[in-house]
Amino acid sequence: MVSLTATVTGKRQTQRPAGRSIGRPGLAWALPATIFFALFAVVPLVLVAVLSFTTWSGLGSPEYAGFDTWARVFQDPVMIKSLWLSVLLTVLGVVVQTPLSILLGVWAAGPQRNRAVLSAIFFVPLLLSATAVSVLWRALLDPNFGVPSQARWLFGDGNLFGTQTAAIGVLVFVSTWQFTPFHALIYQGATRAIPQVLYQAAQIDGAGTVRQFFHITLPQLRNSIITSMILMIVGGLTTFDTVLILTQGGPGTDTTISAYYMYDKAFKGFDFGAGAAVALMLVVVATVISLVVVRVSGYDKMAGTKEGL
Predict the structure, then answer these.
(1) What is the pLDDT of residues 261-286, one digit of tens each?
(2) CA-to-CA distance for 224 and 219, rounded, in angstroms?
(3) What is the 3-state secondary structure (H, E, C) of 104-160?
(4) From the CA atom positions of the chain, what is the Rg in Å?
(5) Fewest CB atoms within 10 Å of the CB: 5, 48, 148, 231?
(6) 190: closest CA among 104, 130, 131, 119?
(7) Please, how many CA atoms are within 13 Å of residue 2, restricted to the half-sphere of its CB?
(8) Cα(87)–Cα(93) distance, rounded to whole angstroms?
(9) What span, in angstroms and rounded, lies between the C-alpha atoms of 44 and 307?
(10) Is 264 part of a structural domain of the chain?
(11) Membrane-crossing residues (predicted)?
């Protein structure tokens, strides 16, 4: 009979019965998630891919058009412009949100007085939907009744949606206001996981707060920064509701990003084949960029300390 207990270094430790191997869970554990992902992600994506090779107005049956739909989409100058605008807004979002969220997250992880209360206030935008946030800022920035109309010495004529530069600035500002708390939450958790012994050793060596931040905190946050950037890139390329409510692609087509262009073609122009082509293109572009970031950064070679079950 196999003994279930053994004494090692003076302590009693429980042993598993002989013949039972410790391994990963069986495939049955992954079956529910696999089915859910297939039904609500893979199947719709396949249907969108098929629809992108057709012409369909929403009535009747789709008619196969081959690559004519794709050619028609990429021959549209508005489409090419929307790609550059999507990339621009994504880059601006990453550049602005990353340092702000790192600083806010690192600060929120510290022992400062009233930190919990202030952190809760900073994270309020995270609780609101993108639609609610967009409606709120649309009202606040209204050129006739909002803040700009009362401070023309600062905003000029008050119409922040009348020029491309100002409209893009508004989109970047609103996205930063809403999503910086989310990324700060990531950095807050990652900062709290950094071993305190590193900071204690740095203090003994005479390193101040700034040196500790650049030589300990930032290197330890490397994988969190990559994760946050990937989320920003995917979110920036696929954002839609903020543009729909704040600028509606205007003035003219100066803020018509690819996601809004997809909506305009499919639900305003009733060209669902073209809309599906743009949607599929966005999925491919976001996936490729994310994979490139992972490979270039070495994130895919990150070794964890625990595997879990």
Answers:
(1) 999 999 999 999 999 999 999 999 88
(2) 10
(3) HHHHHCCCCCCHHHHHHHHCHHHHCCHHHHHHHHHHHCCCCCCHHHHCHHHHCCCCC
(4) 26
(5) 5
(6) 104
(7) 8
(8) 10
(9) 32
(10) yes
(11) 26-53, 83-109, 116-140, 160-179, 225-246, 272-294
Tokens 């729909």 map to which residue? 244
pLDDT beyond 60 at 7: no
Domain count of the fold of the chain: 1
Tokens 């690559």, located at residue: 67
Identity of the amino acid at 33: A
β-strands 63-64, 54-55 pairing? antiparallel
Q: What is the CATH number of the domain that holds 157?
A: 1.10.3720.10
Share of the chain above pLDDT 70, in %: 89
Beta bridge partners of 273: none
Q: How far apart are CA 179 and CA 198, in angstroms?
A: 30
Instruction: Please name the residues in contact with 299: beta carbons below 8 A apart, sequence gap of 6 or more.
Output: 223, 226, 227, 293
* HEC profile of the chain: CCCCEEEECCEEEECCCCCCCCCCCCHHHHHHHHHHHHHHHHHHHHHHHHHCCEECCCCCCCEECCCHHHHHHHCCHHHHHHHHHHHHHHHHHHHHHHHHHHHHHHHHCCCCCCHHHHHHHHCHHHHCCHHHHHHHHHHHCCCCCCHHHHCHHHHCCCCCCCCHHHHHHHHHHHHHHHHHHHHHHHHHHHHHCCCHHHHHHHHHCCCCHHHHHHHHHHHHCHHHHHHHHHHHHHHHHHCCHHHHHHCCCCCCCCCCCHHHHHHHHHHHCCCHHHHHHHHHHHHHHHHHHHHHHHHHHCHHHCCCCCCCC
For 101-145, write each residue's pLDDT tens digit: 999 999 988 887 777 788 888 888 888 899 999 999 999 999 888
Q: Is residue 176 part of a domain?
A: yes
- Domain region containing 288: 56-299
